[in-house]
Structure formats: C-alpha cells, structure tokens
Amino acid sequence: MDVTELFDKIAPHIPEKVFPDFIKLICFYEEQEDKQKTLSLDFKSVPPPNLRFHVTGRPFLDFFLKSGNMTTQNLKDALQQIGKNFDSFDNILEFGCGCGRLTIWLQDYLKLKNYYGTDIDTEAILWCKNNLGFGTFDTNSANPPLNYPSDKFDLIYSYSVFTHLDEEHQFSWLNELKRITKSGGIVMLTIRGEEDHEKQYWTDEDKEQLQKHGFLFRHSNLWSGFFPSWYQTAFHTKEYVMNNFSKYFDILKYIPKGSKRIGQDIVILKKQ
Questions:
Q1: Beta carbons of 252 and 82 less than 8 angstroms apart
Q2: Which residues partner with 138 through β-bridges?
Q3: Which of 155, 158, 170, 272 is the most exposed place for a label (fewest CB within 10 A)?
Q4: Would you say the C-alpha torsion 252, 246, 98, 220 has a positive or negative sign?
C-alpha cells in the first residue's frame, strides 16, 4: 500500500476538529519529500503541498502529477469524440484552474491561445501568475458574475468544480458560463456519476436521496474547515444532468468514466 492509499484509508476517519492539523502535518512531511522529487521533473516548479491538497484532496506530488496528466488525456479524448481538440479554439477559459494541475500538462496548447484561468482560491491564482509564465489569471467570487464580457469564449472547460457545488451554486454558474460562451461554443464539465468510487462509503439514506432526486450533496471532513458549506462533494445521475443542464446548453456528449479512481464523468455542452 502506497502513501496515497494509506492516506485515503485514514483521512475519512480523522475527527473534523483535528483534521486541519492533520493536513498541516502531512503537508510539512511532503515539503521535505518535494526537495528530492522536484530535482528530476521537467517542470520549472510545482505548487506546494497545501495547494495540491486544495485541488486533489491529497497533498502528494506524485498523485498531483499523475491525476493531472490522466485528466488532461481524458479531456483530449472527449474533445476528439466531437471532432475537436484544444487547437480548434482561440479563446479558452479554465473555470476552476486551481494551482495549474491541468494547465502544466496543456501548456503547449494553451500558451499559443488566448488562455484564461479563474478560481476562487486566491493563493492558487497567485502561484499561477508567478510560475506559469503565460495566460491571464483571475480570482472569482463565490457567486457570478465572472470578470469577462458576454460571448467571449469558444471553449470553457472545468474539471472537478461541479463535483463540489450545491444545487443553488450549480445553476447560478451554469447560467454564467452560458453568458460568457460564444454562440456555437463548447463547455466541457465533469461530474461524479453513479459509479463513482466513493459510493462505497454512502449510507442507505444517501443512495435513496440520489435515486429519488438525481443529485446528492454530502459534507466531508476532507473539505470542512478548508472550504465553505456550499463547496463540498456533489454527485449526479445521468438523467439529472440530461434534464437540468439542457436548460442552459445543448448536450452533445455524456461520457462516463465509471469507477476509474481519478476519473469523472465528462459532459460536453454547446451554446446555441
């Protein structure tokens, strides 16, 4: 069992009131490990453990890099299913870019485009501004609007943001993404679907709620103390997505990732 698997087994059982201290301790350990690992990396720099925890729920460098690489490949494969790739677009927004987990893997594409990244995490955005050397990065508030004009982007992608929003914020942000997307533009989002690996931890009440409503919002000590109550862990059924996201966009593709440990279902939308 590697350190990431051990962390995943232990973390859910740490009492919420001491969880922040537990994370600080793990991050301190990882900072020492980083000094050895980063010497062999191709990237000029990588974000510190606390920022990696903010975007992955784990502070480990190997997982941060592996998950970012696999996720970007999943997004590339998804675009190919609609006959597109990242070169197909000129004005690109990453909604919820965090500390660049995906950006560092897509930089060969993005640095040649009008690339923008936005996130609620001020510290993560500062890291991107200071270390990536391309793109325009902004901090957004908990609620719309974003600091962009209407009809600006022909591609917006967002990984593991709608997996954390409650319903009120989810619908507000779908409406805002519609506003800033060009006619004919593509929006690519991810959700945690019915086959997500965390389902093994659900109660019977959780399962009943998802089956009845199609949407399940759960609080977790992995996020409590770090993020607000409206940003925790959200699960969707495909039927819920098809019925509700279609109120804002045409749904081109729903691509399940199922039980892949770091995979999420991908929803590809198009603005009319």
A1: yes
A2: 118
A3: 272
A4: negative
Nearest CA to 126 out of 92, 99, 161, 145 is that of: 99
Cα angle for residues 253, 258, 259 (degrees, 5° grid): 160
Sheet holding 181-191, edge to edge: 136-139, 114-119, 91-95, 153-158, 181-191, 265-270, 250-255
Contact in structure between 139 and 120 (CB atoms under 8 Å): yes
Alpha helices in the chain, H assignment, sequence order: 3-10, 19-37, 49-56, 61-80, 103-110, 122-131, 167-180, 204-213, 238-244
> In Å, what is the CA distance from 24 to each residue of 27, 82, 128, 235, 266?
5, 43, 22, 28, 32
| 69: phi then psi, degrees, rounded to nearest 5 | -65, -45
Confidence of residue 261 (pLDDT cuts 50, 70, 90): low
The pLDDT tens digits for 134-153 are 999 999 999 999 999 999 99
The confidence score (pLDDT) of residue 197 equals: 62
The DSSP symbol for 229 reads: T
CA angle (156, 243, 88) in 5-degree steps? 25
Helix (H) or strand (E) holding 220: none
Contacts 24+ apart (CB under 8 A), 7-11: 7/58, 7/60, 8/58, 11/221, 11/222
Prior bond to 145 cis, omega within 30?
yes
Domains of the chain, each with CATH number or no CATH: 68-270 (3.40.50.150)
Residue 190's nearest CA partner among 263, 100, 92 is 263
